[in-house]
Amino acid sequence: xxxxxxxxxxxxxxxxxxxxxxxxxxxxxxxxxxxxxxxxxxxxxxxxxxxxxxxxxxxxxxxxxxxxxxxxxxxxxxxxxxxxxxxxxxxxxxxxxxxxxxxxxxxxxxxxxxxxxxxxxxxxxxxxxxxxxxxxxxxxxxxxxxxxxxxxxxxxxxxxxxxxxxxxxxxxxxxxxxxxxxxxxxxxxxxxxxxxxxxxxxxxxxxxxxxxxxxxxxxxxxxxxxxxxxxxxxxxxxxxxxxxxxxxxxxxxxxxxxxxxxxxxxxxxxxxxxxxxxxxxxxxxxxxxxxxxxxxxxxxxxxxxxxxxxxxxxxxxxxxxxxxxxxxxxxxxxxxxxxxxxxxxxxxxxxxxxxxxxxxxxxxxxxxxxxxxxxxxxxxxxxxxxxxxxxxxxxxxxxxxxxxxxxxxxxxxxxxxxxxxxxxxxxxxxxxxxxxxxxxxxxxxxxxxxxxxxxxxxxxxxxxxxxxxxxxxxxxxxxxxxxxxxxxxxxxxxxxxxxxxxxxxxxxxxxxxxxxxxxxxxxxxxxxxxxxxxxxxxxxxxxxxxxxxxxxxxxxxxxxxxxxxxxxxxxxxxxxxxxxxxxxxxxxxxxxxxxxxxxxxxxxxxxxxxxxxxxxxxxxxxxxxxxxxxxxxxxxxxxxxxxxxxxxxxxxxxxxxxxxxxxxxxxxxxxxxx
Length: 674
Description:
The chain is an alpha/beta fold. 52% of the residues lie in helices and 10% in strands.
């Protein structure tokens, strides 16, 4: 039925345009007959009666088409919205006529007195139409301001040939499309997923504001705030669908800094928006406030955009003089995320039920992300009856989807080490296992038992791993990541700390914000670069260092994942800071018995070995990290000799390692080796 209506409107719109063109054409013919064919044998009375009859017929055709239209024709809508006078409307129709009808262009050529000049001019219209007015050629007149017509002479505007803008010509005929000049910089946003209840409430609120716009002279900007960027677009598309708008997104990077180019983009978008019911979604989450020229260009653009404008912002909002309707868009609640997962795996949700509490607790995902992950897992065709496979695959997909993209600041470590390979005193191992328990039981304690209602501060799980280099701090982090099936990211704090005030905090913020959704394990290495005894503030740098440390601890306390700090010098960390860290694990230098255990576990099962004496190897006074280096280098030496790993290979590798450490090897360490 709707297709039939659309076809009826298209045909009626064309009929309306054709009748309008005929009426203008007849006016031109009358003028030509009166002024250029006076000497021909034409009876003036007969010609006048014929003209009146034709005008009456065209008017009937116009009225008939108008009755069928049911809504305004493209011509009348354009004239009303852009404010065209009857004279300007006729000028526009003259220009459309020469493009659509060969007889029309021939008539204009005759009026111009030039067979090859088929384009009308303002001068021609001013001399023919009785309702002509000079204001139509002013720069701010609708025809010129909205660039409805193209001119080939900027100095003699009245004599310039006029050509209708191609997009406007197609619009008049009922063919609507995005102007080609916008194709490369805007993207059509289509309806994506269903909204969750909290998002439906946001959508309904903004829809009501739009429908009540008649009570305000200017429609406010709809500003969607918060970090849930994927769902902002979904909400925006739902609003636009309900009020009958087509939504496009524009990157702030595409907004010209040059004023004239900025103005032209504004003019073009406002014309398209007004005529074709387009709305604009502008993502300002990545705005660079330090780039003053770009910020000014964006603010200028926003202040002058007409129609429905939806802004997405996180913390920094462009300066604007326009009023805004601000709405916070949070992540879906835990209950809503549960429901989204169940809907995403309809029919298979029972297999996910035991995994869902941990998934929802660990990963703080938008509705769009959950839909995306669900579809990805479905495409992998997981066999439904395989026990536990679906839940594990969803967990892995969540890890992959939430991996932060901050290669400059972080390094992802693939965890391959298990508990069996970790040689530590029992008390240290027990603390590590307590950390695992707390991560796994967060859902029950924080949500079911209500601890999360006490506030986010202090709910993050933080740990300090203290000990000399090579004593197993990174290895222990790998064990935790392997046990928890989470991504592990190593952040070298010596690289994050910046000499410029504010940059360190900015870098830390980027890291935590990027990792927040997935709650991955963050390993902040070389914490000594930032921590220290700051009790005595001697200068402004010390004062700001205190702020940076406090900011790091604050984010660790609120972080939904596990955050680990490592230090070689625990004594350098102020006790006031230590009190804010939940777990402290001391990694002591391994004694001889511990070193023997490390040597027994350092070689993979597939490595061929011959006559290795672990008691003798344990005399090498180096920590586990160096033991692993020696073992690996010895394996390469043995492989090159095509023999199993033997004591002489380890001795050779050990000597190289000691040279690297600038350390002398004692006779006791290699006594009776060979």
